[in-house]
Amino acid sequence: MKTAQVIMDTGAHAAALAVKSARVDVVPGYPITPQTSIMEALAAMVENGELHARFIPVEGEHSSMAAAVAASAAGARVFTATSANGLLYMHEVLHMASGGRLPVVMCNVNRGIFAPWTLWADHQDSMAQRDTGWIQYHCSSNQEVFNTILQAFRVAEQINIPVMVNFDGFAISHCLMPLTLPSQEDIDRFLPPYEPEWRLDPAHPSSFSNVTNAPEYAPFRQMLSDDIMASIPLVKQAAQEYKDITGMWDGDTIDTYRLEDAEVVAFAINSMGAELRLSIDILRQQGIKAGLLRPRLYLPFPAEDIITALPQNAQVMVLDRNYNFGHPGGILASELKSVLFGRRNDITVKNRVMGIGGIDLTRQFMAAEIRAMMDE
Amino acid sequence: MNNMLELRINGFGGQGSVTLAHLLAQAALENGEQGQALPFFGVERRGAPVRAAVRMSPGSIHAHSQCELPDYVVVMSEKLTKAAISEGITEIGTVIINAPYAEAVEKYCTWQVDAEAIAREAELFSADGPIINIPLFGAVCRVLNIPQNIMEQTILNKWPGNNEARNLGAAGKAYNEVRICSPLL
Q: Measured between CB atoms, does B9 come within 8 Å of chain A?
């Protein structure tokens, strides 16, 4: 391990530094709050020669993902970022990236969805992209954002599936905290240059993503589904090797805190998963055996790791920062129940929706909510 | 968690609350601790009330919420004192007010510094008027017992080669002039 450097940085700028150290080739971008700081930083790095990449300003997010798809098909390492309605506007092209098996990496800085307008975090935007065939990480700290972007490129390029790295707007993106920067040498060792198996090349013309008949189409879709599931060992391997090289660890598919003997388990993603550690400490001081299970990987949903990690007879309190419209409660609870069904009948799942549109989630509030849920 | 110090800055848009929060978080790191600055970004305009959370801790900081019950409240303008306290403070909290004169606020330990006068004297001006966040940074460092050399190093790192003498002069004066107010009799 080479000497690492500690700086103070925001989550958004930490993302830009990770992208720079991943030595990307192409960055298409369009601004949207709270993601804009990432694009501003990358545009400046390209302009002043720190990052040898092509920055492509476009007129909207549909085009930024289209440019990302095209550049990736031409063999480039590509990054872009978006938030909320920008992500929704990309929806069609997200399917092109995954169906085309293009290892684009994108940050989505979580923000609630219009209407009405909100600037602040909830997870409706990324959850609404559940069925686009992207791998999705959700990060709980500035450092994890940095680390995960590098791991995302590695996993994406190993299995040719695009990866979305999500983190909360403002609570992470605009939060200034210490950030450890591994040496470029260590990062290069972890993330070698991208060697595409094929690429579009005008010198050797070929076609890509033509109309297929059902006998060709169906196996493509089946392969995508199978390979998304097959990414789980790669996610674990990337986390482990990143730790071996840099010494840093944020969990692999899941992250846990005081879980081993827990009778009450908080289950949540993103920055809630950080603040909840403090809620767990409060509950422990009150004599409640509380613990935390934070899925770091939301898609593929790490079913086996969750089933293995949950203690016997635990009450799991799922704190969703999104709505599962048409069902009571949130999407994470629904996902969790579907993996536990028939496998862990000892587990009780309870669910509350909170923090919508950036409502502040303090350690005291979440500890009180968990206590109240115990009596339900 | 018990050793984590929480601070909230209440100010008006344009007074430099975000930069003050960044300086304090940076000073924590310079001082060998962990620091966090978490400004609340809304649809601010100049002159509208704004706030920012700051945390300092010997260990990792996991909190990502605004400071609901901070140990310290920094009031950038005395006009905001009542509103700032009503947003929440711990029972044994401390208040630091920028004002030419101040009396103790309720039961709280209260410190006062005339950051505006110090900025004027040091000729620290922006297009909007005197730059009060630099003297306030000095004053808050004093109240938090952050050594003066750490405070100075933080300023030098933030703006190397830029206005160094005036920045250090104003921050140092506030560091030495900030005083505890007598409680009301």
A: no
> B26 — contact with chain A (CB < 8 Å)?
yes
- Alpha-carbon distance A176 to nearest alpha carbon in chain B (angstroms): 5
d(CA A293, CA A349): 13
Chain A and chain B share a number of CB contacts under 8 A equal to 67
- Give the start-end residues of each E strand in chain A: 5-10, 26-29, 54-57, 79-82, 105-110, 135-138, 163-168, 176-181, 254-257, 264-267, 290-295, 297-299, 315-320, 348-353
- pLDDT band of B182, cuts 50, 70, 90: confident
> Tens of pLDDT along B98-115?
999 999 999 999 999 999
Q: B44 pLDDT exceeds 80?
A: no
Enumerate the domain spans of chain B: 5-180
Instruction: Give B64's contacts in chain A (Cβ within 8 Å).
Output: 168, 171-172, 175, 271, 274-275
Distance (Å, whole) CA A256 – CA A243: 16
Chain A residues within 8 A of B34 when measuring between CB atoms: 177-178
Choices 1.10.287.370, 3.10.290.10, 1.10.287.1080, 3.40.50.920: CATH for A255-374: 3.40.50.920
- pLDDT band at residue B1, thresholds of 50, 70 and 90? very low
Same fold, A5-246 and A255-374: yes
> Is A171 in CB contact (< 8 Å) with chain B?
yes
Contact check, Cβ <8 Å, B36/A271:
no
Which of B36, B64, B68, B157 is the mutation pick for testing A, counting most A CBs within 10 A? B64
Residue of A nearest to B62 (CA): A274
Instruction: Delimit the domains of chain A by residue range.
Output: 5-246, 255-374
CATH of domain B5-180: 3.40.920.10
> Rounded to a whole number, what is the largest CA-CA distance in chain B?
47
Helix (H) or strand (E) holding B27: helix B17-30
B172-181 burial, b at 16+ Cβ within 10 Å, e below that, comes to bbbbebbeeb
Q: Examine the pLDDT at A36 and tell me if it is beyond 70.
A: yes
CB contact under 8 A, B37 and A176: yes
Mean of all residue pLDDT scores within chain B: 94
pLDDT in tens, A51-100: 999 999 999 999 999 999 999 999 999 999 999 999 999 999 999 999 99
Residue pLDDT, tens place only, A238-295: 999 999 999 999 999 999 999 999 999 999 999 999 999 999 999 999 999 999 999 9
The answer to whether the CB atoms of B29 and A361 lie below 8 A apart is no
Q: Under an 8 A CB cutoff, do A174 and B41 touch?
A: yes
- How close, in Å, is residue B63 to chain A by CA atoms? 5
**Distance set, CA A52 to CA A26, A43, A100, A102, A155 (Å):** 9, 11, 26, 21, 23
* B35, B7 Cβ separation under 8 angstroms: no
Q: Which residue in B29, B40, B62 is closest to A178 by CB distance?
A: B29
Contact across the interface for A274 and B42, Cβ inside 8 Å:
no
| CATH topology (fold) of A5-246 | Rossmann fold (3.40.50)
- pLDDT value at residue B183: 64
Give me A112's structure tokens.
């609630």
Tokens of A296: 């770091």
Per CB-CB distance under 8 Å, the chain A contacts of B66 are 360, 362
